[in-house]
């Protein structure tokens, strides 16, 4: 994602790369990234290393790394775009607290298509109601560390909130053996891992005599990177607070 974001910045108007960050001890620290026109930026550690010469941080790292970077951003009042997934509830609360001091966009998926999918799922759930069973199937490459994906969980949260259900009580992440009938209000979230799948998400509404499937397939990481750059351009100058890609895209 870092490489994809650097390339997206290079092809976008109104934004330029002012620095690149890696964690302490990373072998690339101290090296440089060549930019068009013959200039370059160094690879350093921590947002404080680029303070004073950057307007916004784009972070696709780990939950711990993102929170560490956000703590510095909050101290500096530096806007941030966070695309990291796998955060716990407690970590999301910490993210929200940091966002009260610096405008922050947090989204498990930065693509335009996926954020439109969120809205379509809410519309479908509201129209179909409890007569249709909800299943979410997601697939990613074999190297992805968290499961289910942050996008799959966000889709489940959209569906459960629209249907008035408690996702903690109704989510089912695996089925095996003699499990009996599907329980009322159940929301299935199933995971596939293999090969180099960039990202696929399907929300299935199965009802009497028919089913509706809403699917998004990502063909490359470029769409996530372009969305992150668009978010970075949008968040600069905003009031402190926690925003989403729906805000950026005007989907709220």
- The sequence of SSEs as H and E is HEEEEHEHEHEHHEEEEHEH
Q: Give the overall shape, derived from the CA principal axes.
A: elongated
CATH class of the largest domain: Alpha Beta
CATH architecture classification name of the largest domain: 3-Layer(aba) Sandwich
Low-confidence stretches: none
Largest sheet: 5 strands, mixed
β-strand percent reads 15-25%
- By DSSP, the count of extended strands is 12
Radius of gyration over all CA atoms, rounded: 20 Å
**Helical fraction:** 25-40%
Largest sheet strand order: 8-9-7-10-11
| CATH-assigned homologous superfamily of the largest domain | NAD(P)-binding Rossmann-like Domain
Secondary structure elements and their pairing?
Blueprint: H1 2-11, E1 20-21, E2 32-34, E3 40-44, E4 57-59, H2 63-76, E5 80-82, H3 89-99, E6 104-106, H4 112-128, E7 133-140, H5 150-163, H6 167-170, E8 171-172, E9 187-193, E10 199-207, E11 210-218, H7 222-235, E12 242-243, H8 245-249
Parallel strand pairs: 1-3, 4-5, 5-6, 6-12, 7-9, 8-9
Antiparallel strand pairs: 2-3, 7-10, 10-11
Helix pairs in contact: 1-7, 2-3, 4-5
């Amino acid at each position: 994602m870092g490489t994809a974001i650097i390339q997206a910045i290079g092809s976008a108007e109104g934004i330029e790369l002012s620095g690149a960050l890696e964690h302490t001890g990373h072998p690339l620290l101290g090296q440089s990234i060549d930019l068009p026109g013959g200039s370059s930026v160094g690879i350093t550690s921590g947002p404080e290393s680029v303070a004073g010469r950057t307007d916004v941080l784009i972070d696709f790292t780990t939950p711990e790394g993102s929170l560490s970077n956000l703590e510095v951003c909050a101290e500096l009042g530096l806007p941030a775009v966070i695309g990291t997934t796998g955060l716990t509830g407690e970590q999301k609360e910490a993210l929200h607290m940091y966002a009260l001091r610096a405008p922050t966009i947090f989204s498990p998926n930065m693509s335009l298509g996926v954020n439109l999918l969120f809205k379509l799922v809410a519309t479908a759930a509201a129209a179909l109601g409890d007569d249709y069973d909800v299943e979410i199937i997601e697939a990613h490459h074999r190297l992805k560390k968290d499961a289910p994906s942050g996008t799959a969980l966000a889709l489940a949260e959209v569906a459960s909130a629209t249907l008035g259900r408690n996702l903690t009580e109704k989510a089912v992440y695996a089925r095996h053996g003699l499990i009996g009938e599907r329980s009322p209000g159940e929301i299935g979230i199933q995971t596939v891992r293999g090969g180099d799948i960039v990202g696929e998400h399907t929300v299935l509404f199965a009802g009497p005599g028919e089913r509706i499937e809403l699917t998004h397939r990502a063909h490359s990481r470029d769409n996530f990177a372009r969305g992150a750059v668009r978010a970075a351009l949008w968040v600069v100058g905003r009031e402190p607070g926690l925003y989403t890609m729906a805000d950026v895209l005007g989907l709220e």
